[in-house]
Amino acid sequence: MKPVILSLLVLISASFAQAAADSVAVFHRPEKVVVLINEQYQGRLQGFMDHFDVQNDLDVEAIDGSVLVRCGRKVDAASCTLTFYPSKQVRVGNKTLDAAIPLIEMNLPEVENFEMSFESSREDKMSLKIQDGILKVQASKRVL
User: Fold this and answer.
1) Are 45 and 37 in contact, with CB atoms under 8 Å apart?
2) Domain extents for the chain?
3) pLDDT digits 0-9 by tens, 71-90
């Protein structure tokens, strides 16, 4: 019985260690929202970059300049900075962001559907979804 309990404790602590290695921060201003994501190990950001078949860096900008996505990775870690400016396709609210932009307007190929989300201990949240050729991003900060 003790080995089973010990194994469960090791598994639980390993999952917390990985979660602690991930971070998301949302910096919100009415004129600009920046989302920073860092992740260790083979995770969601690695999968996002794999989706577009990029090796080390993904650096794209919407035709109208309203969305910038910059990601980089190593074997065991990845990082992305997403920058959003208010536009027809980017709505910035009170501590919230809602963006939907066609992949073609970011010079990205149409790819299969994909989804990932992050939440910080400070309640910053970000979800990204690719569906039917549209990149959808929602982000928010805790309202104090």
Assistant:
1) yes
2) 22-140
3) 999 988 999 999 999 999 99
